[in-house]
Known about the structure:
GTP binds at residues 14-21. Pfam families: cobW. Keywords: Chaperone, Cytoplasm, GTP-binding, Nickel insertion, Nucleotide-binding. It is found in: Cytoplasm. With 221 residues, this protein is an alpha/beta fold. The chain has a 7-stranded parallel sheet, sandwiched between helices. Strand 2 (37-43), helix 2 (48-56) and strand 3 form a beta-alpha-beta unit. It has helices at 20-31, 48-56, 73-79, 82-95, 134-137, 140-144, 156-159, 163-174, 191-202; strands at residues 8-13, 37-43, 64-68, 100-104, 121-127, 147-151, 179-181.
Amino acid sequence: MRPDKRAVRIGIGGPVGSGKTALVAALCRALATELRLAVVTNDIYTTEDADFLRRAGVLPDDRIRAVETGCCPHTAIRDDISANLDAVEELEERLGALDLILVESGGDNLTATFSKGLVDHQIFVVDVAGGDKVPRKGGPGVTTADLLVINKTDLAPLVGADLGVMARDAQARRGDLPTVFLSLVGEPGAAPVADWVRDRVAEPASTPRHHEPTPAHTHGP
Ligand SMILES: Nc1nc2c(ncn2[C@@H]2O[C@H](COP(=O)(O)OP(=O)(O)OP(=O)(O)O)[C@@H](O)[C@H]2O)c(=O)[nH]1
Ligand SMILES: [Mg+2]
């Protein structure tokens, strides 16, 4: 549990359908008993992702807030973050002290990143179904996110994606920043990301939010 009152805010972005909501659900299941946590979801025209999380019962309903952006997903997390900030602050006021708030961006493209005024850390989720070229294509999500998740490794044989190529290209693009390979429908599930999130929450309050990257460690494939 965090020693101060300020929840760590972690943004989860990435292309449409890469598994952001599935990751949020898995993180809630892994962490909800040990951390005081809440979730903000972003969709353009609906509250689809929040509805999914509520139906799945991963958190009590009042810990999940939906933001309907009505505009490009990246605008609401990068350029005009007011609706998301309002949602985060409303959760903190209503629920009291929290350890962690996850903010899921609406699905976008490889250019989407979060404003540092909204989140402390960012996770970028891509999947292998788009082909093993995706990390090589770069873009700020792939190159600068604090953690890159390459999801749906179970689909790699079906789409002919070479996970070794993806690991090599991710490291070339990201240098020392970490990358993890996941399958959320099999092993390892979300465990490597849950560990990374625990480490972020456990960091002392005095640690600068936008610190230097942690030493290199690329898990898997
Ligand atoms: N095979 C497989 N399917 C997955 C995995 N993770 C997620 N999915 C499926 O991929 C689809 C999209 O997952 P979501 O979690 O909705 O993706 P998203 O990134 O939140 O999508 P948007 O919010 O619409 O951008 C769903 O049908 C998930 O069940 C995985 O590891 N393997
Ligand atoms: Mg989603």
